[in-house]
Amino acid sequence: MLLACVPFFLALLTLSNGLSFSYSEYYHIHMIFLFSLSTNTHHWILSMMHIYSHLSMYVHACIHQQSTAFISFTAFMIVQSIAAYIAKSEAMMGDSAAMAVDSMTYAFNLVAERMKNKADEEDANADYSGITMEQKAEFIRIQNRDRRKMRLCLELVPPLISVSTLIGVTIVVLHDAITTLILDSQREEEEQSRPSLELMFVFSTLNLGLDFLNVCCFAKAKHAMGYNTMDGEENNTVAGSAARRKEEAEKVVEKIREGATRHRTKRGGLGSNDSNVAYAKLKPASYEKQNGGELEMNPLPNSIMGVDEETVGYSNSQEKENAQAEKYQPCEVDGVLGDNNDDNGHLSTVANANAEEKQERANLNMCSAYTHVFADTCRSIAVVIASSIAKLVDGITAEEADSTAAVVVSVLILLSLIPLFQGLVQTATELKAIREEEKTEESPDVTYV
Length: 449
What we know:
The protein has 449 residues and is mainly α. 68% of the residues lie in helices and 4% in strands. The chain has two domains: 2-230 and 362-442, no CATH class; 238-360, no CATH class. The model is unreliable at 1-66, 223-229, 232-238, 266-312 and 325-362 (pLDDT under 50).
């Protein structure tokens, strides 16, 4: 009964970090509790291992949650490895090896997120005093490109190492399984090992049910068939990637101009040609007579103006422009800058445009999560079928069934990596485009306007 408290302790640890569970995760915890009540320690081990691998996919909202996911995922990988050793199952050992690679990936992601946050803090503390708006806009453009370049590197290198390691581990497991099948064809049943078919069947059946629940969650989010890893065939080249970024920038600028036009129609006196890719520099919309006839500004919302009432009334336009530069707080929209919120606390036009673009873009992280669920579902089915056949068919031994399942599991792991490889290629292509853009700007023959 003491063991039954462990899964709830882990769940409370996760909840204490501010994580909310879906129906699938609550069901996971309930299933853990039911199997924890069993007097068989093996059943408790089986109920705990790999269930948390699904749970940990949702535990990376921030660095603290990623730390929890890394520690807990590593712990349960060790537990599953012990159970696989007890069961003498090559298929389960192969899955444990895959979980070890996943754990390493969490560690890489944790380091990458820390580096990203450090860069964001440095950008937020940057000093823009003493420069014009045009100089500031150019500086921020280069700064955002450098930050985008760093993020692409952090999104490319860790997954590439993880995938390469997983391929190596899978090949080793596949080789051992094939070797076992060849040897079993030449030796008697008494000379073969005897994996625990009961442990294999119980473990795989439990995980199969949980995998289907996870797939249902993806289906509820209208992603039953997975996520895109490519934005389109035109993005397979450097020119295509650059063209896509240019198109996105044009869409964002158009959104800014539409917002300016709406304010002009509403309040009058505002043109829409004051916007550009780097920043939106707009003039006051109207004036009102107050305080005995003295003219005072009635400015537009700060998200459009880039300045509040305290920046009005300076001795010259340059002083006012410098004040606007100090007040201006940009946000990155794939290289295009704008304000985060309007006066009503809602996302600005630029942020809304960014949200629309992100909905159309490929989501490599979610593709990885879906690939994990889908591949694990197929692996569970393979192990269930193999253990059932070995139990029901007299001519097939337990070792032969387990080795066959290990081969199937290894092949499925390799096939599941194909979409991720496509996403990595696209990330590398975009990174190459940024580097070529930097080389072009460094060329002495280039003339800037």
